[in-house]
Structures are given as structure tokens and as C-alpha cells.
Amino acid sequence: MAIALTGCTSPGSHSSAGLAPIPGSITYHGQPRTKLTKSPVGSSFPHTFTDQWGRQVEEIYIIRPDRGLLIADRHYRPVFSLDND
Length: 85
Description:
This protein is mostly beta strands. The chain has a domain at 1-8 and 40-85. Helix content is 9%, strand content 27%. The chain has one helix and three strands, in the order αβββ. Strands 1-2-3 form a three-stranded antiparallel β-sheet, with no helix packed on it. The termini are far apart.
């Protein structure tokens, strides 16, 4: 985990706007009202949800210096079908 956090806290690593929120993202309707005051700036955490098409989505968020959240990465988990048709 330390390697992942090191990459997240390097200078300029999260200076961009990040990914645009989609329905289900924590920041879809703007930044959360509660601030993550106990989490260190630059730390990251995952959020998993189901999108409007039924796909599993995992987003990685980074806490900015202003305590806002940046969507740093998004992955869609593959949907496997057991149907042999």
C-alpha cells in the first residue's frame, strides 16, 4: 500500500481535474458536504458501485489539500456470462 500512496503524493500527480463524475460517483452532485478531516492529504481510497447499465465500477479517489475529492482512476469490472448460447 505504501507504494500506491507514494505515487499519489508525488508533486503534480493530482494537479489535473481528474475524471468527470458519473452517476454513482461520490462527487456526482458536487463535493461531499462532510470533509475528510482525519485522512491525510494525498491519501487514496476506493469506491465501488453499480452504474446505470448494471456494470460494477470501481473509482479511486485522492484527498486534495482543500479536502475535496479527485477521481484519479476508474475501472469497469468485467461481467461474466455463464450462458453458453
